[in-house]
């Protein structure tokens, strides 16, 4: 089987696996709503990823396959990254509560424009917790708990740092950088 090349492939091999192992499959229904898949289909794919990864030598290929089918594809047409300062007080306006405003997610101080994914980051949606703020710590911990949705990620251990870095790389490939968070 031919494999996609480069970092795109590397991201897909890891991210869904980390999601799947972090919390089990109980959230499947939330995400099925945002894609063409039924909760059962999502659950099966997540299970496949989990099982594929623990032992087999072809685990990477298997995970990539399942991952590719449940995660959105990288964007082909990203704009040059911007470095505009965005005060965190201002960032909080872009949390999806006003449909006329863009939706921003910050990771390690860099602000990504996720406006085209209201079904994930919009008000009341599964990942709204990451909207309008820098929740780097929560991303590293695979946590959707509001108390972890903070910018200071200094408490993360090595594997959590890996997770955070993988999310950063996931976002870099999909969303425009519109600025950096300033105090
Ligand atoms: C069993 C639990 C979970 C399942 C089944 C699940 C499933 C999914 C699926 C299917 C996608 C891709 C959606 C798409 O591209 O359209 C996704 C994306 C994502 N998930 Fe999860 N997830 C789970 C838990 C978590 C947790 C605990 C976190 C916390 C960090 C998380 C963070 C994310 C993020 C940030 C995205 C990227 C959204 C985007 O910008 O495309 N997920 N998840
Ligand atoms: C990091 O912390 C998590 C959560 O407490 C734990 O499951 C994991 O084993 C730790 N990893 C390392 C490398 O210490």
Automatic annotation (TrEMBL):
Domain of life: Eukaryota
TM ranges: 12-33
Pfam families for the chain: Cyt-b5
SMART domains, per the entry: Cyt-b5 (SM01117)
Positions of the UniProt region annotated as Disordered: 74-97
GO cellular component: endoplasmic reticulum; membrane
Location of the Cytochrome b5 heme-binding domain: 86-182
Keywords: Membrane, Transmembrane, Transmembrane helix
Gene Ontology molecular function, alphabetical: heme binding
Family: Belongs to the cytochrome b5 family. MAPR subfamily.
Protein name per the record: Cytochrome b5 heme-binding domain-containing protein
Native source organism of the sequence: Kwoniella bestiolae CBS 10118
